[in-house]
Amino acid sequence: MTHEADPGWQFLRQSPEQLLAATTKKFDSKKNVWVADPEEGFIAAEIKSSKGDTVVVVTSKGVEKTIKKDDAQQMNPPKYEKTEDMANLTFLNDASVLHNLRQRYYSMMIYTYSGLFCVVINPYKRLPIYSESVCQMYLGKRRNEMPPHLFAVSDEAYRNMTNDKENQSMLITGESGAGKTENTKKVISYFAMVGASQQSKKEKSKKDKAQVSLEDQIVQTNPVLEAFGNAKTVRNNNSSRFGKFIRIHFNQGGKVAGADIEHYLLEKSRVIKQAPGERSYHIFYQIYSDAVKGLREKLFLTRPIKEYTFVSQAEVTIDGVDDKEEMLITDEAFDIMKFTATEKSELFAITAGIMHMGELKFKQRPREEQAELEDGKEGELACKLYCVEAEKFVGALLKPRVKVGTEWVNKGQNLDQVNWAVGALAKALFARMFKWLITRCNKTLDAQDLSRDFFIGVLDIAGFEIFDLNSFEQLWINFVNEKLQQFFNHHMFVLEQEEYKREGIQWEFIDFGLDLQACIELIEKPLGIVSMLDEECIVPKATDLTLASKLNDQHLGKHPNFQKPRPPKGKQAEAHLAIVHYAGTELEEELDNERQSRSKAEKARNEMQLELEELGDRLDEAGGATQAQIELNKKREAELAKLRQDLEDAAINAETSMAALRKKHNDAVAELSDQLDTVQKMRGKLEQSGEQTEAVKRENKALAQELKDIADQLGEGGKSVHDLQKLRRRLEIEKEELQQALDEAECALEAEEAKVMRAQIEVSQIRSEIEKRLQEKDEEFENTRKNHSRTIESMQVSLETESRGRAELLKTKKKLEGDVNELEIALDHSNKLNVDGQKSIKKLQDTIRELQLQVEEEQRSLNEVRDHANLAERRSQVLQQEKEDLAIIYEQSERSRRQAELELAEVKDSVNELSNSNSLLLATKRKVEGDLQHLQSEVEEALSDAKVSDDKAKKAIMDASKLADELRSEQEHASNLDKSKRALESQVKDLQMRLDEAEAAGIKGGKRQLAKLDMRIHELETELEGESRRHGETQKVLRNKDRKCRELQFQVDEDKKSTERMYDLIEKLQQKIKTYKRQIEDAESLASANLAKYRQLQHVVEDAQERADAAENALQKMRLKGRSASGVFGPRGLAHSMSTTGVASIRRGGSRGAFLDEDFAEE
Fold first, then answer.
1. Which of 279, 442, 761, 924 has its CA 20 to 30 A from that of 378?
2. What is the distance between the alpha carbons of residues 268 and 272, in angstroms, rounded to a whole number?
3. Are strands 168-172 and 454-460 parallel, antiparallel or unpaired?
4. Cβ pair 59, 65 in contact under 8 A
5. Nearest 10 degrees: Cα torsion 1138, 1142, 1147, 1148
């Protein structure tokens, strides 16, 4: 039969007619696109027109809309309609992937490849694609030869195992209800069929039809585990409430050689409570269905199912599922798995006992912290099923025994505590029963006659579950899925990208696991949710609310993945906390802020450059007014060029140093971020914010002092135009460099700590206030400047001021360079210490883990030795007891023997009397006496032998059952001898013949029995010596193990101390890092101060320019006046006048208004 004739083929691949019809559709690659739709996700559309970055499209619904060109996603040609591998799509975008999966799902082709992966969509119906005929299609076929199917992936794993001789694993993930459990069962069935097909025909013919094969047992583990581990949820009628990893083992020939199962995260809380719309585990309802006749009566389940609280809090039936039929399937699976009738009945009894336990009724005693039993009928039924005494069972719940010091005391329990104890006991019973069930299945699946060379592992765990209100189980289920997804991303994407890098492929690295890591660290790291939950469990009287309060104090507002829960809606319960799965938004916002800051800084820099050029042009025009100024300008321009070159070199060096410092700073921050998280990062941030506030205050004080100094400097006199121009340009260059360094430092600090932005905003406000105050001071200075004289000699004073300023700036520059070098050295030193500390911590952690493993191994060995020693001691006690019993039996035997001797003496007396009375029997009498003497000697020998055996028996420890039988046989023989002697007394006439026969038989039997006893005593003595020797060796091994355990415990304690010392070292390093950060902030504040000083000097330059203009005008006037008055004063008079003006200027200092009046008075 061909593949197309199989009924399941239409659900695997399109027919040729369907392919042809799809390829003939009308399509224009330039017009047909996908656009977003709020209802369907994406719908097809056709571009009508385009203009710039926008296009006008008409959707398949006939709606015309205008969208951005980037929002339209390209559509693939019709030949890719319902493609089997989405990696073949020309345009691999969200819309195309969604459309391809949706169209294949509409055709019930639920399997689709996406490169290396196989995507499955749950059809929620039975499809004929898992039959034996479909399985035969995929046997030995390559992946590209057949349509997408789970069997193709399974067969590829099987072939890789047999060809590469390496173990394989299959990972089946998805949300709850996605079909993971069903696909896992199909995978197991396929491997069982493939493994069975590798058997030879002879092996198959030898097997009886009624015999159950190993492959059938592997398949039948699913009904057993589903009955006890699956339940109905809101999304899924058969949801796995535990995770399992199934290893199917194969031998070298590819034949199934057994299997084993590991389980994780059983949802124990479902045993005693269920959410609305859900149900407890299937087994509770299956045993109640009475599918197995007489089972309900045997388990005392006589009440309606709704009256059993533990299993009836929500749903008790499932639509379309017959619990009777499922119970028969489970019972049949038990039989196939070789469960005995006793094992099945005990499993059902424990399950029913849990149902009865839920009906125990207690009440609180008035005015006492003690509960008492109100209704214990159901408890008695549970105790019958558990085979325990009801009175002791209830007493253990009401007044459990607690060990206090070295004594045991009874602790009273109130009503809530008793109810909690009942629930906890029910959950623990079910969990241990489930664990035993897994172990029992593994025992059945262990094929002893086949070697286990390779295995294929199949992982099936509970999927993502996100409800409005999630319990502790949902937290752990989602946490496991989160870690599993990160592990998958790391191995499938990160390692793949590293392979690209090793091969030299140009590739931009993408970190797929970044979003998941933040959530994982919130849960499992120190001071995380799990750590704080462990701590809260040992706190007296701790509740859910106290834990929630501590979590909110620790993480709320400090961790992006920890949020305050939304208020409840309607009857919804109030949640305690909310955890976000992804944390990409905050990082994107920080990146946008950094880009905006850089663009603003660049724009301000360009504006400042234009302003500087304009001011330079104006100064050039003003500076070329006279020939003397031109010559002076040339000279000072040369000096300015030299200074500019020096400043440029210094700027390059400073930029290089700042770049290196930023790089090292960023590296240090990246390396130490994990450690900062472990030592309360938020506390450090708060402390740092306080330090920043102090730094801002110090900066304010420094700015106020600088304002005062500048005001004093402004009061000393005017500045030279050309010298101030040189100072202004140099400061402009320095300002640009400082501004650039400040912007870069601000961006770096924004990326490191978000709270620095607030401090910078406050600093900017303070700067604006300072600038405003500077402006007010400038206005005051403008009013003062108009009252001062305009003289040329004041230029000398400005030159001296400029020299001093230059010297101060050079000193500041050297100080900054020294600070930068010190910071670099300190950062390098801290980085080295941090790396060494990390290595030491990792080594210590590895050592601790190894030592813990050794301690556990030694503890297991010690337990085994103790068990062996206890067993030997118990056996020795049993043998000792048997020895005492044997001694008692031997004493009884000895008393019987003495009685026989007395009776024998009586017989002798009777014989003597008879010989005296009967003369005719004299000869007979003599003969009888001789025989009697001979018999007496033999009896005495037998008695001596018995005494020897008695001495030996007192020294030996014998096997009670065998030795007792032998002693009883000897005692019976002694009684027979006694009977023979009494027969001799009654039959004197036949004494010779019968006495000979009896004595001969007794002597022979006694010798044989005594010989056997001697041999048995010797054997038992040898066995006792061996047991004593083994007991001594066991005691010696026990002492050695105890000594090793103490040594390991001491070593673990030493390692803990070393770890604590390393943590102290880490805290010291973190303190140093804080110090380095403060130094960086001080450097930043110094840069801000220099920037403010530059702005002040800029105002000074502008004022000096105005004063220079006024001085130029005054000089022109003076020249005109000098030419008009040359006939009176002459050249000397003018020189004298100018000299006098200079002296007056030096003498009066700040009284420039008065000096101006005197000057004009002299003129």
1. 279
2. 8
3. parallel
4. yes
5. 80
Long-range CB contacts for residues 1003-1008, cutoff 8 Å, separation at least 24: 1003/938, 1003/942, 1005/973, 1006/942, 1006/945, 1006/973, 1007/942, 1007/945
| pTM of the model as a whole | 0.51
CA distance 17 to 22: 9
Residues in the chain, how many? Answer: 1163
pLDDT beneath 50, residues of the chain: 1, 200-202, 205-210, 582-595, 597-598, 625-626, 719, 960, 1125-1163
What is the 3-class SS of 161-218, one letter each residue? Answer: HHHHCCCEEEEECCECCCCHHHHHHHHHHHHHHHHHHCCCHHHHHHCCCCCCCHHHHH
Name beta bridge partners: 55: 50, 67
Helix, strand or coil for residue 138?
A: helix
The predicted-structure confidence for 914-960, as pLDDT tens digits, reads as follows: 556 565 556 655 665 666 566 556 556 655 655 555 555 555 555 54
Query: Is the distance from CB of 218 to CB of 250 less than 8 angstroms?
Result: no
Annotated binding residue 59: no
DSSP state letters, 668-696: HHHHHHHHHHHTTHHHHHHHHHHHHHHHH
Tokens, residue 620: 């050039």
What phi and psi, each to the nearest 5 degrees, are found at residue 812? -65, -40
Does the annotation place 930 within a ligand binding site? no
For the stretch 805-852, pLDDT in tens is 677 777 777 777 777 777 767 677 767 777 777 777 777 777 777 777
Q: Where do we find the tokens 């230059």?
A: 806
CB 352 within 8 A of CB 301: yes
Specify the residue for token string 């299959």: 170
For tokens 């001969």, the residue is 1000
| Residue 174 annotated as lining a ligand binding site | yes
Residue 616 tokens, joined: 């330079």
In which element (H, E) is residue 938 found?
helix 922-955
Residue 178 assigned to a binding site: yes
338 marked as binding residue? no
Q: How far apart are the first and last CA of the chain?
A: 130
Question: Any binding-site annotation on 177?
Answer: yes
